[in-house]
Amino acid sequence: MFIRFGYQIGIECAQPTPMMTYLSVVPERRDDVVRERGPVASPVVPMEEVTDPHGNVCLRMILPEGETRFDYDAVIRDEGKLDAFDPLAEAVPVERLPPAVLPYLCASRYCETDRLGALAWKLFGDVSAGWQRVQAICDYVHDRLLFSYGYAQAMRTALEAHEDRLGVNRDYAHLAVTLCRCMNMPARYVNGYMADLGMPETPAPMDFNAWFEVFLGGRWYTFDAKNNARRAGRIPVARGRDAADIPLIQTFGKHQLTAFTIWTLVEPDSGLSRSHRSADVSLLKPWFSETWSRHLQERERNNSH
């Protein structure tokens, strides 16, 4: 099957401002992209593609004074399979972990392993190390937090989410990542698109999603504490220790978010190829609302550097 995904983003700056974006599909999925337009900037902005220490593809540029609009629309081939499932996957002893995954055992900006370690061992110390322990953590986080976009706070940490008992996707992921690391299981934070395959339609505006991955049995597995269920149609764009490593938009100066629309839609199979014509983005279902716009502008102001 095929999934169409993309975004329209507007950013206004008072002066020329450096910016990086973490919005590109991860390298291992690039060959699955069958049609792509963009990102196109208006006015035109030179963009440099770079790779960060976590292997993510980033775009680096300097925004001019005034508003810049970015448009991106693509179609990716997807098998439509649910997240991999292996209840026999075991935790790898720390002394046998590959060096590349060791950073995902440590505390990070939003994941305070030093402050949640005692709780983690109290809650999950008697659960079999490996898949069962990760699932127990997902169950706990899913039941502990109350989800609402009205509760979004850019600076909330895993400990704060645990104590507040509320949050959004990133908070569920941060708390689960932290508890996994406390139990000596490498875990990393993931941003990406997620199609609502097989799920009831929701009136909420679409947004980028956050989930996490855990290193078990010699490979990374996907988990999702917010939905607490295997899902299909994930398109990861960046991975890091937490959200601080992979901000979707990172400016090095003041900016205002003037537009932010995301879509992830299942496309018909018939006749699709790399020459498939670009569909009119204006015909998409209008998920974006004035209220959502104000919320996102406030979130991006808090995240700006």
Would you give an account of this structure?
The structure is a single chain. With 305 residues, the chain is α+β, with helices and mostly antiparallel strands. The chain folds into two domains: 2-79 and 247-303, Immunoglobulin-like (Sandwich); 94-238, C8orf32 fold (Roll). 20% of the residues lie in helices and 32% in strands. It has five helices and 14 strands. It has helices spanning 113-124, 131-144, 158-164, 169-182, 290-303, and strands spanning 2-13, 17-21, 33-42, 48-51, 57-63, 66-77, 146-147, 166-167, 187-194, 209-216, 219-223, 234-240, 249-251, 256-267. Strands 3-6-1-14 form a four-stranded antiparallel β-sheet. Strand 7, helix 3 (158-164) and strand 8 form a beta-alpha-beta unit. The longest helix has 14 residues, at 131-144. The chain is globular and about 60 Å long.
Which second-level CATH architecture of the largest domain applies? Roll
**What pattern of helices and strands is seen along the backbone?**
EEEEEEHHEHEHEEEEEEH
The low-confidence parts are 270-305
Could you give the order of strands across the largest sheet? 3-6-1-14
Number of strands: 14
CATH topology of the largest domain: C8orf32 fold
